[in-house]
Please model this.
Amino acid sequence: MNAKISRYLQDARPPTPCLIVDVDAVEEGYIQLRDLLPEARIFYAVKANPLAPVVKRLNKLGSSFDTASRQEIDLCLKQGAKADRISFGNTIKKAADIAYAYEKGVRLFAFDSEAELRKLAQAAPGAKVFCRVLMECEGAEWPLSRKFGCSPKMAADLMVQARELGLDAYGLSFHVGSQQTDLSQWDTALGRVSSLFSILRERDVDLRMVNLGGGFPAQYRSDVPPLEAYARTVMAAVRRHFGNRIPELIVEPGRSLVGDAGVIQTEVVLISDKGDGDGRRWVYLDIGKFSGLAETMDESIKYRLRTPHDGGRTGPVVLAGPTCDSADILYEKTRYELPLDLAIGDKVEILTTGAYTCTYSSVGFNGFEPLKTICI
Ligand SMILES: *Cc1c(COP(=O)(O)O)cnc(C)c1O
Model:
């Protein structure tokens, strides 16, 4: 575990549950990605962790920002980001929010439908637009399929229409799915967008940008290839499909920038069994699905745990949250083992929880407070 966070937890003994984010680790992640992918502009996906010190630090480092709402735009502006480094990347926006962003100076917008394109033409005249292309997201632990993007053929027609509507038909985007473990997905995606570049060139629309999305990994339970391998594979695919006509590139990392920079500390509230012969202990923590661990839905994201008894003998457990909702079980099908010495009152650390946690916390289901966050 991150030594700075470990030291902080030892010295400060904050009440649990809480998320500690090491902003220096976010900075290191940003610099690493920037150095590995110098060809691409980094737009941090703000939704992954919108804490002000995180956004502020990334802004200082020169990052741009991918936002999904008026509130995220305001947050970035407030932390000093210039509007020309903000993209409104959600394909589902109210016309009033598009107008608001435009009025604030934002000129880069995503869409994946004709109706959204018409909203953009109305509320953001002349802005740069990019169309999101549908992906299958196979191999992703947190897929973003179906809901976003349109078919390649539709994307081509919409980009022609974008120009006819007076917008700047800037480029195409895709997202191969979050925590993508199959590196070949970028090759498939880039093949798809490069053919669209050619098709559109024949229709006199010269696209200039490819937005490679997110999908870069954080370190959960299963090993993932190093970020170097991702960067190498992505750039090899870009070169294979675009040759020496490489367009402007954008990446939108969320999880990979902030995931490993955060640790949640939690406390064991109860250890019990059901007397049903299952043989597994039920371990109830003071955090669950409603206080930040939403990505355990369908047991998709499998966090690593640390306990004070690591190294001792272990046994299988079912892990659950503290609320009176039976959906609030973190891992039941996935095999988790915890030390037999684990006791009620012990602190347990949930590692790599800097991404998609604190803002997934409910405002007070069952009276439990939203997850507390501390940036160090
Ligand atoms: C959520 C999101 C991202 C970030 O994805 P990660 O897999 O967390 O890096 C990037 N782009 C868009 C459009 C998103 O919605």
The chain is about 30% helix and 25% strand. Residues 23-257 form a domain with the TIM Barrel fold (CATH 3.20.20.10).
